[in-house]
Write a structure and sequence with these properties.
Elements lengths: L5 E5 L5 E4 L4 E9 L6 E4 L2 E11 L6 E5 L2 E4 L3 E5 L7 E5 L3 E2 L7 E5 L2 E4 L2 E2 L5 E3 L7 E4 L2 E2 L4 E3 L7 E4 L9 E3 L3 E4 L10 E4 L2 E4 L5 E4 L3 E5 L2 E4 L3 E4 L3 E3 L4 E5 L6 E5 L5
Parallel strand pairs: 1-3, 2-4, 3-5, 4-6, 5-7, 5-8, 6-9, 7-10, 8-11, 9-12, 11-14, 12-15, 13-16, 14-17, 15-18, 17-19, 18-20, 19-21, 20-22, 21-24, 22-25, 23-26, 24-27, 25-28
Antiparallel strand pairs: 28-29
């Protein structure tokens, strides 16, 4: 019964693919392919009953691509591992939904997860990796801006290269967020309990209309992009808010508390 199967893809030929003959329900998905073995899943709608997706370290330098739409049957934990910091990737081109049940997605592991679809799941997106080379990239769009970076490694990076229009909080406890688009979470409040914010594209303008709250640590806006802050900056306990620009190698630093 496909509804109770856990699907493992292992030792498949290079550039191999599976095409679903209709919509399928599985308990979980695991990529345990050989090093340098790319794989793709195509067609249909794929419901993951437990929400679990795993990429083993043995998959090495390769990309596992899911072109099918995905429905989460529970809060998802996607554990993405590999032996290469730049080419151990799980790429989701299909949309990710939750059937209206409010499920979220947590990424763990040490490598890269790329989301290209227009995702409709309404629970939080949590980035919780343990390595500097771990990375989450939103190329498409997310229905919710409930995004939390709680990575244990300060260099682990969440990248927003798409759209997240929701009006909820984005919280960073550690790690980094890299921004490539004017359309970044324009209605959300960014809260930093540590962590850093940087521009990924020198030609972009970072536009923030809601508050940025700095609870602890210092936060830097890096790069030579234009930065427009239309919302309040709230600095708790005299934290430091720093804007570092590439122009003339100058550094502007602001310290203090902005009251209500």
């Amino acid at each position: 019964d496909s509804a109770v199967d856990s699907i493992i893809f292992s030792n498949v030929a290079n550039f191999a693919a599976t095409t679903l003959d209709g919509d399928k329900t599985v308990n979980s998905i695991r990529f345990s392919t050989l090093d340098s073995t790319n794989y793709s899943i195509n067609g249909g709608i794929l419901t993951i009953k437990t929400g679990a997706l795993t990429r083993d370290t043995s998959a090495g330098r390769s990309t596992q691509t899911v072109n099918s739409a995905i429905i989460l049957g529970a809060n998802a934990i996607w554990n993405i591992n590999g032996n290469n910091s730049t080419s151990s990737i799980v790429r989701i081109n299909g949309s990710i939904g939750d059937g209206g049940n409010g499920y979220g997605l947590t990424m763990t592991g040490s490598r890269l997860l790329w989301l290209y679809g227009n995702n409709t799941y309404s629970g939080p997106t949590i980035f919780d990796v343990d390595a500097a080379s771990g990375g989450f990239v939103l190329f498409g769009s997310n229905a919710t801006c409930a995004i939390i970076n709680r990575s244990s490694n300060s260099l682990a990076s969440m990248t927003i290269n798409g759209i997240c229009p929701g009006a909820t909080n984005v919280t960073f406890s550690a790690g980094r967020i890299v921004v490539y688009t004017n359309a970044l979470i324009p209605n959300a409040t960014l809260r930093f309990d540590g962590g850093a914010l940087s521009s990924g594209n020198t030609l972009q303008t970072l536009n923030f209309t809601n508050p940025i709250i700095l609870m602890s640590g210092g936060v830097e806006l890096e790069g030579s992009a234009n930065i427009i802050l239309r919302g309040d900056i709230v600095l708790n306990s005299n934290r430091i808010f720093t804007i570092a620009t590439a122009r003339n190698d100058t550094l502007q630093s602001f310290r203090g508390v902005i009251s209500d």
